[in-house]
Give the backbone structure.
Amino acid sequence: MITNSTHSKSRSFFTSLGRYFLWTILTIFTLGPIYWMFVVSSRSPVQVYDKPNLVITSFYAENYTKVFEDRVVRTYMVNSLIVATTNAALVTTLALFATYALTRWKLKGSDSIFFWTITNRMAPPAAFILPNFLIFTQVVKFGDFMLFDTKIGLILVYCLFNLPFAIWLLKGMLEGIPLELDEAALVDRASRIQVLFKIIVPLAAPGLAITFILTWVFAWNEYILAASLSSSSARTITTRLAEYVTTTGTNYGELAAVAIIATLPAIIFLTFIQKYIVTGLTFGAVKE
Amino acid sequence: MKKSNTNRLGWILLSPSLFILGVAGLAPFFYVIYVGTHSWNIFSKERGKVFVGVQNYRDLVFDSAFLGTLSRTLFFSFLVVSIELILGFMLALSLMKDFRGKTFFRTVYVLPVVVAPIAVGATWRLMMAQGHGPVPFFLNKFFGWEFNTGASTTQAWIAIVLMDVWHWTPFVTLTLLAGLLAIPREPIEAASVDGANTFQMYRFLIIPMLLPVILITVFIRVMDSLRSMEDVYMLTNGGPGSSTTFVGLHIFRTVFAKQEYGYGSSMSLLVLYFTIVICWLLFNALTGKESKKK
């Protein structure tokens, strides 16, 4: 980042060599565990317990076919997809409204409100499982319907850690949009709502995309709440992953296959937002 | 433009978020406060809740198992956040330069961020497993080292610290990189013309300008590392002994394995309190910086 013209050419050659060395090592370190997961998913139940071999010699596809044929895994994948997508859409929309309010109006105590929303993300999940469980099974109950083991329940409870994050991320984004644009539109007799959808939304679109995808990933990856607030019909794919370790005995090959399948959607999403992710993550901390 | 009679729309826009957080956050929070003042163990003679006032908190202060996990968690947070911050800063600087293949390296490097904590734990457990995991096997083959995360506290700690660094340094790098890209160029160029050396540039210009981003990154990482439990639980199961049992897992066991609802609730309130205090200090440092700038 700091250029100094007095450096000789040979020195810059060595620094670039060093840079490639560093990034190659980092790439190996980063991919190592993921690669090993893939290796394990290619091994038969017997091969798994052999001496570790870093090379894939034969591919035991049964791990994958078994997982794909498993109706439970399919249901859980669909549940995960519905819960994560709905939650991310809900959270992004609500956070857009909330941050629009927080940045465009001088509301009484808005700093405290902002901090309070973040504190919701700080609670240790373990202790809040019990109250949530009771609320889900006993408080919200209409006849046969209860919130426990429903996707709606999970979607709502995931707001607890996603909404604060989304509000934080978007607040920085919206603060970066100059107020003069709002004012110009308001002078032209546009309503506040029109300003939001005609000016703010298009300008904050990359930020909204990042918010949607990061909250989607967080919701997709959540485990503890899903495991304790659902029993069968709303369980998500991460709980299946844990079941491979605990209940069905450790079937490492299939466990690895599920882990790979569960990780793929997030990786695909990540490559979509590569371009924006760097500029979008300032959380509004640096203002020019 | 900020007239009080238009404030109503602001509150209307804010209210759905506040409502959801109120229902999903405040209701359980008050319930935890309420249960925290009771003794409630379904295995004990009295089935229901027995009001005990602040007795749970009196016990907590002398509960060496809880205090042990709490200090261990704080130490772990401090350790991993420091390592991730230093590494992340250096890597963010490296990514500021353009070089061939940068996009590829960055894309690969960010992958761990999106892997589910529980899958991360499972992966690292498979790598560290005795007999069929590559890490102990090759360390033994090439160096003759005995690496067993199930037997040695130090090695278990090395494993979980490495895992956390692997998982979250990319996130730290990204936020710091975003910050570095956003800070204005002119002061740095001016200082360069005035003959400031690299150390002075970082010490007096770049790091002070980047401080808000650094604080936010620390804030997020501290907050998340204090409450996380799945990955370490999968890798070491809190062992050997209780040497890697962090406070999240300890609460989970108190509430679910021992069914000590009241005691577990008071525990988590205390942890929440500590987290809020730490984050409040960081938040104040942050907003203090901003108001000074204005």
User: Anything to note?
Assistant: The domain at 64-259+266-293 of chain B is CATH 1.10.3720.10 (MetI-like fold). The beta strands of chain B are 38-39, 50-51.
